[in-house]
Amino acid sequence: MAKKINVDKLLEENKAFRLLVEYTIKDLTDLAWDYDRMSTSGQQTYDRLSRMYAMKFEEKRNAISQ
After folding, report:
1. Which residues have C-beta within 8 Å of that of residue 31, sequence separation ≥ 6?
2. Integer Cα distance of 26 and 63 in angstroms
């Protein structure tokens, strides 16, 4: 017997996931202010997360910190 799909639960999970993405992008935006103070590893992690969330890089920030 096939399992019944609970549409309300799926909609709730979708809403929660969208909020998680929204909050993560806000946090990454806040962290950008401290980019030049991050370790090389921290900058690499920040860059990877930013790419995952399709954020635009500011080449100026990288040029200034070098």
Report:
1. 38, 46
2. 23
Q: Model confidence over 8-30: pLDDT tens digits?
A: 888 888 899 889 888 988 899 89
CA pair distance 48, 39, nearest whole angstrom: 14
∠ CA(19), CA(22), CA(28), 5° rounding? 140
pTM: 0.62
Residue spans of alpha helices (H) in 1-66 = 7-31, 40-52, 59-65
Give me the torsion for CA of 31, 36, 38, 39, rounded to 10°: 150
